[in-house]
Amino acid sequence: MVDKACRNCHLITEGNVCPRCKSTDLSDDFSGIVIILDPENSQIAKMMNVDRRGRYALRVR
Ligand SMILES: [Zn+2]
Questions:
Q1: From start to end of 1-61, where are the E strands?
Q2: What percent of the chain shows pLDDT beyond 90?
Q3: Whole-model pTM?
Q4: Which of 6, 12, 17, 40 has the smallest C-beta neighbourhood within 10 Å, fewest atoms?
């Protein structure tokens, strides 16, 4: 399985559909991974507008 990042919300997934926003616009060309474990209390999560746990790409091309 190849990890891919959603171009829409930056969530990293192993599937072909983003489980967060249901977008199929995924890219395997991304850089920087942020792991959000506690979106309620994470400044990074707020900065990235993230509301669920998961791995997110900082940059998706
Ligand atoms: Zn998405």
A1: 4-6, 12-13, 26-27, 30-36, 54-60
A2: 90
A3: 0.87
A4: 40
